[in-house]
Amino acid sequence: LVRTKALLKNCIVSIDASPFKMFLAKHYGMDMETKSKSKAKLAKEKKSKRAAVPKFDVNKASAALKRKWAHRQKTHKIEKTLEDQLKLGRVLAKLTTRPGQNGRADGAILEGAELAFYQKKLEKKK
User: Fold this and answer.
1) What pLDDT digit, counting tens, does each position of 13-48 carry?
2) Interatomic CA distance for residues 85 and 14, integer angstroms
3) What is the pTM of this model?
4) 26: closest CA among 56, 68, 53, 62?
């Protein structure tokens, strides 16, 4: 929770970006992973006992899929600030439902002026 300490409608939350990274990789062929991982970090990841999140390798795509991606990328643009958040692994979102009423929390990812506003608020808070 970012803005308030309770899950209410219109509260701002920070969520994990991995499902969004996976969607962008599969649908647009955009790899949002940071390329500069050190050898020590890679060795540490191999040794970790947690279940690894399955990754989609953009480089192993078929020629037909690459043509689809090229066609989709002609009209698709992603904001710089949103791309930065995806690379960091956390995305700011706003809840659009009342979680206590229906038992789930639906929402929308912040972008544009609204994202800039809340990022400034978070910087002041720190």
Assistant:
1) 999 988 888 888 888 888 776 554 544 555 555 555
2) 10
3) 0.69
4) 56
What span, in angstroms and rounded, lies between the C-alpha atoms of 35 and 104?
Answer: 35
b/e burial code for range 10-42 (CB count within 10 A of at least 16 → b): ebbbeeebeebbeebbeebbbebeeeeeeeeee
What are the CB-based long-range contacts (under 8 Å, 24+) for 78-85? Answer: 78/24, 78/30, 79/111, 79/112, 79/115, 81/111, 81/115, 81/116, 81/119, 82/109, 82/111, 82/115, 83/32, 85/17
CA 24, CA 31: separation in Å to the nearest integer? Answer: 7
Backbone angles phi, psi at 31, to 5 degrees: -95, 115
Distance CA 61, CA 123 (A): 40
Q: Which residues contact 116 (CB under 8 A, 6 or more apart)?
A: 81
What is the pLDDT at residue 3? 64
